[in-house]
Design brief:
This protein is 31% helix and 14% strand. It is of the alpha/beta class and 519 residues long. The two termini are 32 Å apart.
Amino acid sequence: NNFIEDYLNFRQLYLDIILESESIINGGTCESCQSTEGFFRCLTCSGEHGWCRTCVLKAHQSLPFHKLQQWNGKFFKDTSFSELGYIWYMGHGGQPCPSSQEAMHDWEDVHEGVDWTENNPGVNIFTEPTSTTTPLIIIHSTGVFIHNVQWCHCPGSSVHQQHLHLLKAQLFPASTSRPRTAFTFDVLDHFLIDALECKTSAMSFFQKLRRLTNNAFPDSVPDRYRELMRASRQWRDLMNWKRFGFGHDTEVNPGTGDLALFCAACPQPGINMPVDWQDHYESWLVMQRYVVDGNFTTQHMNMKQPHLDVTLSDGLGYMVTDADYQAHLSSAKETKERSSCSNHRAVNAANTNQSNLRATGVAATACARHGCFVPHTVVDFQKGERHMNVDYSICNAINYHSDNIETSLIIYDIGCQWCIHFKDRINNSPGLSLPEKSQILTGVGKFHLSAHKLPCFARFSLNFIEGAGQVDGEIMETLWAPFNKISPTARSMSQYHRQEILDDHMRDSNWKKMVGIGE
């Protein structure tokens, strides 16, 4: 509060300084050439600057995403690079193409339109846009810009390579054929971080950019929301391939779960354990400890045209491969059994169906101690929390990097009912498998255990299971909290777009666990 009180003493002075910055600079003289009226300023550059038209373009030759304003005699009004005649050359590092006719007169006098040389005859400025230039809408992290672009005309270059020229200029094309919209790499990185950390939807993010461009009339700014959705999916996919090492080796494609991070501390033979680990560690010490839970907030609506959906990373992250999962569901049989424990909602609602939903929720498996999602274990519910769904997730988790680990602890809210016929369901389902000599121990989280009958306490309490350690078995509840914020956005996406979004947030959750595990 003392800082606020100190501010009150300087409020009027602060206002005066801010208002002074709205006046014309250097008495209206260009600070560079000192011979022309300096009616242009940049809101992005630091410090106070006043330039003429020629000098402001020279100063921003490599800064095409700065915000320019022009003094109109009363106040500074927004202007753009395209209005000032700026041309962005593609294909030669920002320099004019030697094969282009425009390269012969990169600078010329302008006598049409506004007479910029009325008081200074003979002043050369940048070329006015011609028929050889293309207006390109470019979305940057500071707003939406329109630039006049001149493409490369070298022999062998064609319109089919325009999207490649944009990529080399660090602009991501919205299409591969004659692109007219592009996104800077910077704005795509910003969107992905905003989506992960702030749970910002694509619509809200682009509306922010429109308001940054024109806060008074945001609807006058071109709407590129759909293009942002498409480009961000492609950018996310490219970054995953790059970061997981599949960018340089073009002969190897990622397999199931290869575009996912897992826990750095949980035992994984061949990754974070010595070759002779079996000679040094007891079995209970390297036991797999997993917690399983369902989330009915992460729903997905039926698609009108699912055959048009295109996958980019089906099964490569945390969600399972759809075709294999559907094959398992078609062969598995769900038996209705009377609960021998309390009247659990998860058991009673196992066969609840909602016709408007393709998925009523998801089930996931995570390591019980650190709360890292296990790759290729997240499954969709078609009705309620059925055993056939949970079994698929658990089996994939037990088989993940578990060479010669014989014991697995599965912590599940209704583990007392799930474990009764688990082995029978494994034997009767061709889509399920476990490692040889696998031993399954079942526990119930400490919070949910209080809702069970008294005999469950002695059998399934984590306090009495050797090797369970000091875990509460409820860490999945903390992992679902941030996912509930993105569920309304992902609910109406296409199936594979939703899959990529959930994979991305789970990958980010594991990444934050990994970098913070040593704190």
